[in-house]
Predict the structure.
Amino acid sequence: GRMMKRFLILATAFIVTLGVTVFAGANILNAIERPTTTVTDSMKVGNLTRSWVVISPTKTLPTSAPIIVVLSGLAASTSQEINRDNMLPYATTDKAELVYPVSIRESWNVGGCCGAAGNLKIDDVAFLEQLVPRVDPGHSRPIYIVGYSNGGRMAYDLACTDPGLFDAMAIMKADPMPGCVVTKPQNVLVVSALDDPWVPSSEE
């Protein structure tokens, strides 16, 4: 639908604005001045307490307005991801609700990769599977996921292990781990950079 297209366009804009820090910074400052509500919530997942940040418009959104779950990149705190991804305009213009799950020591465990979460064998799939019904009870709204780098690999992992969890996903500068096989058709936007030495862009 139209919101899905706008989501994909803004997700593409996210990657474009990563390198334009002054421009993005100005947009973020303008967005912060507009009214939104920021709430941190938590729940028990196994033996761990996991948390997430929700940024919502102050007005009540219609059920057609999506929830966008954003997975941060490796070595990026939640606040750093919020400041670089340029998604805030969705909340400040009453288009969507943003959800930022908090990773373990700024990393996600994707089949043993990457960082502390991989080394500690954190069950991030279980966390995100429990998070979705908490932020979208009864699956009453469209729910999208955006993943950057290590967060993008986590999104791929969910596409392979739990393909019905999200209605669409956007993956930035990430590739799937070996053995990740998508078995169900899904709405996926993959964005790569031409000069990325780690995730080469396909010219096809």
Observations:
- The radius of gyration is 16 Å.
